Amino acid sequence: MEENKHTEISAAEKAMTGVSHLLSWVLSPVVLPTLAIILVFGLSMLSFAPMRSKVIITCIVFGFTGVIPALAIAVLMKYGDVKDAALTRRTDRFVPYVITGLCMLGCGFYLSTTGLPRWVSLFYVGAALAAAINLLVNFRWKISAHGAGMGGFIAMLMIMNRYGLPHYNLWGWCVCAVIAGGLLGTGRVWLGRHTPLQTVMGEIVGIASVLSMEMLYE
After folding, report:
1. DSSP class of 48
2. Cβ distance 143 to 201 under 8 Å?
3. Which region, left, alpha or beta, applies to residue 209 given φ > 0 means left and ψ of -120 to 50 means alpha?
4. What count of other Cβ atoms lies within 10 Å of the Cβ of residue 131?
5. Is residue 122 predicted with pLDDT exceeding 80?
6. pLDDT tens, 2-55?
């Protein structure tokens, strides 16, 4: 009986660990910016844009915010400057934060030249601001980059609901994103990557950074 119970607990722990890893990769800071532009083109008035333009812009956003940061981390790992892709050590995060912030800023500048509404490019500028804040905090404390990414994503949905003339109210999407953020934060804590406070503060930084860009839009 005890052995069966131990086996069940072990299976549940393995399942929780697997789900936590899956959420960490699917909702990682290098994936969410691309997911954001896909939703922008799918849910807002921009869904009527030519498909060719949407594909090109999405690929460029992925290059800026996904490929370049991922390649940078891979190079840093190769030369021993970073221990692992998850950036477990706080000291491993300085250069990736700088690169990610610059990529987000560059992406925001690129989008501002495409003729898209300014609120789209300001989302990426807000993400760059979040990366800068995380960089400063990282000197003394390990804040959650995953939390900041998810918080910024939630804020983007809120701004799109207000300015993007969506086909229908997006508050349902916002609620789903908040739930996903909660699951992601729980997973990061389960994996031992962060404390609950670090994940919550990361989400607050992400939300505040992106929403602050709304003032520029107005």
Report:
1. G
2. yes
3. alpha
4. 28
5. yes
6. 455 555 568 888 899 999 999 999 999 999 999 999 999 999 999 999 999 999
